[in-house]
């Protein structure tokens, strides 16, 4: 019986989970209450295979009073191709002082 080659791709749900967790990490301030995610937007540009090495960048875009926004970019480390880009906004129960 011939073997059928199956290429396994990283599912969109796994990418969404990475955007959610890493976006939260970028917005988190130690000693303050945890932020609540109020919006998440993910653009899927390409696919990633199971053994692809990814480069993930997560950063805080800004903070105004109780509102903050983050961006997470997943990129194929070998080709430089963007796999997905996610933006997330958070709301805090208390304003965070400027650092």
From TrEMBL:
Molecular function terms, GO-annotated: fatty acyl-CoA hydrolase activity
CDD domains (alphabetical): PaaI_thioesterase (cd03443)
Record-linked Pfam families: 4HBT
Domain of life: Eukaryota
Alphabetized InterPro entries for the sequence: ACOT13, HotDog_dom_sf, Thioestr_dom
Stretches assigned to the Thioesterase domain: 10-71
Similarity annotation: Belongs to the thioesterase PaaI family.
Name of the protein: Acyl-coenzyme A thioesterase 13
Protein source organism: Prunus yedoensis var. nudiflora
